[in-house]
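Folded chain entry —
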Amino acid sequence: MTDRALVVVRAGALTTVQDRGRPGYAHLGVPRSGALDPLAAALVNRLVGNPPDAAVLETTLNGCVLRPRSTVTVAIGGAPCPVTVGGRPAAWGAPVVVPAGELLDVGAATAGVRAYVAVGGGVAVEPVLGSRATDLLSGLGPAPLTDGTVLPLGTPAGPPARVDGAPQPCPPAELVLRVTPGPRDDWFTARAVRDLTTRAYRVSAASNRIGLRTEGPALERARTGELPSEGMVLGAVQVPPDGRPVVFLADHPTTGGYPVIAVVRAADLPAAAQALPGTPVRFVPVRRR
């Protein structure tokens, strides 16, 4: 039994292992997966001296509690949340030393949805297709964490950053998503195409790592029937039969038969990872590059 390990005392609502994911395997039907807020994951890795592709933990809403078997350096970022070590308040957004056997409590998010926990050396579960990421759709990678799970840790690659705190973006009060029209906008009426970028939507509580679902006006089809399944990309705005747009996130399927009315710019998707249910959503049209 190695002492380079974390014991999960409380797994929380949904805590998974994530890294940069598995891009490049869509032709095999494998989703990309990876951290929904990759900027936050990269920052906490940098704070503890890890390379940017080291695996971290992604929590959802109510955090998690961990106990290291040896002294480790950790950093928590993404959704702001209270952090304690051994019952004492500790820094969020900065490197923190957790002695062996002490409890690290990553509390419930005070804003946003997903917090990221980096540990010096990274989470060293066995990689699948070059990634340690949990993929909820395909089942690849480690299962979502449960109480009592033991996670092996790698060897620290470098010293932690010398900072008191790193600036991070606030979770969005309004989620603004820039969209390029198409490729199947011709499957919708002119009014529906206009409604997408002029009407008000909100984040649905049914959102998950696969897609950000919205509540708002249904988009009217100009064509009946269904498409043959075709390739889907990250950020695709697919419209299912209820007419409410769904923005595909990291665990999205690689193919689908519902028409895609637009595609969200990749740079806007990290904010989608932190948008709480009820957050206003605005789709803003941009020209194709």
Observations:
- The longest helix spans residues 38-48.
- The chain has two domains: 5-152, 175-285.
